[in-house]
Amino acid sequence: MSAFSYREALNQAMTEEMDRDDRVFLMGEEVAEYDGAYKVSQGMLKRFGPRRVIDTPISEEGFAGIGIGAAMVGLRPIIEFMTFSFSLVAIDQIVNNAANVRYMSGGQFAVPIVFRGSSGMAGCLGATHSHRLEAWYAQIPGLTVVMPATPADAKGLLKTAIRSDDPVIFIEHEVLYHEKGDIPDGDHTVPFGKAEVRRPGKDVSLITYSRSLKPTLAAAEELAAQGVDAEVIDLRSIRPLDLDTLIQSVVKTHRAVIVEEDWPYCGLGAGISDRITREVFDELDAPILRVASADAPIPYNKQLEASMLPSVPRILAAVNDVVYR
Amino acid sequence: MASVQTEAKPIVDESKALGWLRQMMLIRRFEERAEMLYQKGNKIGGFFHQYSGQEPVAVGSIGVLREDDWVITAYRDHGHALALGMTARAGMAELLGKVTGCSRGKGGSMHFFDAEKGMMGGHAIVGSHIPLAAGFAFASKYRGEDRVALCYLGDGAINQGSVHEALNMAALWKLPVIYIVENNLYAMGTSLVRSSSHQDLTIRCATPYGIPGHRINGNDVELMAKTTLEAVDHARAGEGPSFIEAMTYRYKGHSISDPGKYRMRDELDSYIKKDPIVVYETLLKQRGWIDDDAIEAMHEEVKAEIEEAIEFAEKSENPPLEAVYEDITVAPFISQE
Ligand SMILES: Cc1ncc(C[n+]2csc(CCOP(=O)(O)OP(=O)(O)O)c2C)c(N)n1
């Protein structure tokens, strides 16, 4: 075990996989000579050369499509979106091609590609640069969607993503890049579809992922001080969802709050809440509540922006509601 | 030593020329001070892209517009907004996220809007605003008006499909839109050579669509004005779009967090040596329209205006928290929470 940043973890995953497999390459805006807009690909051009670490023009639809074509004929591209907000330019390629080719061709073609990049509110970037689109991508059959919250998961999930034969939407979070954490030595991989119980508890299940893990854990500590024992579950995989772990937890606690950074309406939590309710309705002692971002675009002003995010007080308020305090 | 590059024959009268000089100074000073506020007081948040070095492009081209024309640009938008006559107060307040800002504190540096001035916004998704300009032009033609739309984009933006789709339709339908590419040779850290199959963007973008293309020195404010005027006349006459490739250079990195190490020091120095503001000062002096004292006085006046704008911005209020839910829809907003 050694401590590395989330950014370094991603870099290690790509570097190790590119060392292992010549079919893997990295392509995107500023990934090579600039070392990545967020320095995730630092040093990779030097190590692998311009054949495998490729700067593109600002042509998201074009290079996403080039990646998909290359994947169909046997390569394993990693496509970096500088931020997932910009993947909207490429969404036709991702949804209509990457997600569908295998299905439409009756299984004749696989699309082993990873679309990765940052997402989420990073601080005063305004509406266009703060989108969280996980619910959009999670809705599409054919796509795998993962969102690591820790450096160890960032590395382990990315290695699994690169080895996956399906298109993977790998969503990083801009404010997590500098977070440090222990990463197991060696060929560390994390399987898809396995949530992680970050804090066991028996009174309420707090279900979260990515950046929201931090305030959720902090809220759990405060709750503990108040005599409420919260279980915190980090989804890690958004699709496939680890329903088993969620159900086991709810069967134990009988209450759940979902903490998500995306928008509330038709957000990820809506789908998760629906699944849990259908599976174990009788176990629930309270409606499942959701703490999401405000139902609005993201404003530039700092105070307004901060008021929109899932925060410790908002999580505590929701828990108080479900435990009827 | 700055040298004069423009043709000696003035295309503007004295008062207009002095106004352009002042606007360029104002933009420069606005950004210099804003950069200090960004770094010292931690007062400005988010991305901050400077326009320093490119001022003549906005000032010259906007200088020949009518008040009812439209202007739209990308995220490097401070210069265009100020050139349109938007106040430094409204700009500074926006940078500080205040309710008195040009976008009421909700847009920030990359999203300056001023409906009254025809400032249709700074837009931060590369390529996404380019069809909008064609849309303004479409509306003008549809209603039988002769208003034109001016759209600025970067050399990097040329590689988005939206540019080519918009250019095709604008040419096909003879829309009164003028695309001005600010070719500053870089898109973030990627030089033009590494992003464009052909370095002459006029050949890439004007020739195939059969529209007039002009590849000019964008740092020459009067040449900028003259060329834009030609395009504007063409558009108002119902002859359709034009494409201007304004060759220019940005002094700063792509944004405040970018030291710009991918450029050679010599390259930057060679541009700073021909600083367009100094060049224009020299030209206007040669014409006898201004002297050193008057230039100095103008600098001081601009400085005072910016300091006043900062004071105004700092004294202004933050938007109230309820503003999060304001301006989402025109009808009363119905939360889906
Ligand atoms: C669709 C999209 N992709 C990528 C980005 C990130 N990005 C912002 S500015 C920029 C470079 C644009 O360069 P250019 O168009 O030449 O304009 P300049 O910065 O030179 O004014 C990039 C890649 C973005 N904002 N939107």
From TrEMBL, chain A:
Cofactor list: thiamine diphosphate
A Pfam family hit: Transket_pyr
SUPFAM superfamilies named among the record's database cross-references: Thiamin diphosphate-binding fold (THDP-binding), TK C-terminal domain-like
Gene3D superfamilies for the chain: 3.40.50.920, 3.40.50.970
Residues in Transketolase-like pyrimidine-binding domain copies: 4-179
PANTHER family hit by this protein: PYRUVATE DEHYDROGENASE E1 COMPONENT BETA SUBUNIT, PYRUVATE DEHYDROGENASE E1 COMPONENT SUBUNIT BETA
The protein's name: Pyruvate dehydrogenase complex E1 component subunit beta
Organism: Paludisphaera mucosa
UniProtKB/TrEMBL annotation, chain B:
Cofactor or coenzyme needed: thiamine diphosphate
Record's keyword annotation contains Ribosomal protein: no
Domain of life: Bacteria
Known EC number: 1.2.4.1
CDD domains, sorted: TPP_E1_PDC_ADC_BCADC
Name of this protein: Pyruvate dehydrogenase E1 component subunit alpha
Native source organism of the sequence: Paludisphaera mucosa
Coiled-coil annotated spans: none
Record field: transmembrane: none
Domain Dehydrogenase E1 component per the UniProt entry, residue ranges: 22-320
Enzymatic reactions: N(6)-[(R)-lipoyl]-L-lysyl-[protein] + pyruvate + H(+) = N(6)-[(R)-S(8)-acetyldihydrolipoyl]-L-lysyl-[protein] + CO2
The protein's role, per its UniProt record: The pyruvate dehydrogenase complex catalyzes the overall conversion of pyruvate to acetyl-CoA and CO(2).
EC class: oxidoreductase
Assembly and interaction partners: Heterodimer of an alpha and a beta chain.
Keywords: Oxidoreductase, Pyruvate, Thiamine pyrophosphate
SUPFAM superfamilies listed in its UniProt record: Thiamin diphosphate-binding fold (THDP-binding)
